[in-house]
Amino acid sequence: MDKLEQITERLRQQKPRMADEEAFVNSVMALIDEPRPHITPLWLKVVRTVSSLAATFLIILYVWQQWEVAAVGNASQLSYIEQNAPAITAPEPEAMDRKATIDEIGKYLAEREKRHEMRKHSISHNYARL
Amino acid sequence: MNEVGQDNIERCKAGDKAAFRTLVQSYQRWLFGLSLKLLCDEEEAKDIVQETLIRVWQHLRDYDERRPFSAWAGTICTRLCMDRLRQLSHHDDMTDDVALLDMLVDDESPDRRLENQELAAVIETLVQGLSPKQRTTFVLSQIEGYDSAAVSEMTGMSAEQIKSNLYVARQTIRKRLKRLGYG
User: Fold this and answer.
1) Structure pTM?
2) Which A residues 3-62 touch B at CB under 8 Å?
3) Which site among B12, B21, B22, B24 would you substitute to test the A interface, given the most A Cβ atoms closer than 10 Å to its Cβ?
4) Is B49:B32 a contact under the CB 8 Å cutoff?
5) At what angle do helices B42-58 and B116-127 cross, to 10 degrees?
6) Which residues of B130-158 are buried (b: 16+ CB within 10 A; e: fewer)?
7) Do the Cβ atoms of B106 and B66 come closer than 8 Å?
8) Which end of chain A has less neighbouring CB within 10 Å, N or C?
9) Cβ–Cβ gap A14/B24 under 8 Å
10) Does the interface ipTM go beyond 0.90?
């Protein structure tokens, strides 16, 4: 028997044991008494992650779109106001309106006076002829 | 180690914790010896035995009653040890424990029981420098005394791999012993 055989033969006879076997058994039993952690399968983790990311993306997209719609709406309103501002915000002054009306009435009265005079003249002329 | 009865295994499968305690009490010493010889570290060995027993509890439904329970539990334990050996890197820093080797070789006291640390130191002196597979093959077949089929089942290696790993391991250890003056 060579040295290696001799050593391994001696080692084979050794039966090591723990110093505190009962405490070790209790520790193992305590570990199995603990509720087992719920192990989530990998595919489920992937699905959860992807759906969370998709949901976050959709929420961000929705908020961004709402913001953009609001911004465009404000801009078009402003543009409309700017385009229609003279008609809406700068009506003709009332004074000018009144003056034109007075002129119009003046012209009408003058015209009527003129016709009246012409008719009077015509009547008197006819009487004179009679 | 005393193999527990089939009825005990069945009760464990049904979730009987008292039956499982009996099983733990029956196998923990054997599993600790196996782990200590493979890892050469008492604390690491205890951790592996604990992990082994928890896995046994969790996967007891997968156990095939046609095989001996010790073979199934031993396989779990050995593979956990091999994984741990791959992770550990401190073994190359160990020093040769020549005094203990002297005691074993000179056969001063054949009945002397080595302390756990002594046993770990002697085996570490022999197997340091070996790969995890060579080391595991050497411990299982030379120190634990398992045949090639049992080692193959426990490690998942083929018979050829076991043969070559064992050959390299023995040659390396012989050279080491020669260098230490035991040629």
Assistant:
1) 0.67
2) 3-4, 6-8, 10-12, 14-18, 21, 24-25, 27-29, 31-33, 36
3) B24
4) yes
5) 90
6) bebbbbbbbbbbbbbebebebbbbbbebe
7) no
8) C
9) no
10) no
Round to whole Å and give the CA distance between A82 and B11.
Answer: 88
The pair of three-digit structure tokens given for residue A81, joined into one six-digit string: 């106001």
Comparing A113-127, B99-113, B142-156, B159-173, which segment has the lowest mean pLDDT? B99-113
Write the DSSP assignment of A6-64 as a string of letters. Answer: HHHHHHHT-----TTHHHHHHHHHHHHHSPPPPPPPHHHHHHHHHHHHHHHHHHHHHHH
User: Is A25's CB within 8 Å of B119's CB?
Assistant: no
Amino acid at A38: H
pLDDT digit string (tens) for B15-25?
899 999 999 99
**String of DSSP letters for B154-174:** HH---HHHHHHHHHHHHHHHH
pLDDT in tens, A61-84: 999 999 888 887 777 777 777 776
Tokens of A66: 């709402």
How confident is the prediction for chain A on average, in pLDDT?
83
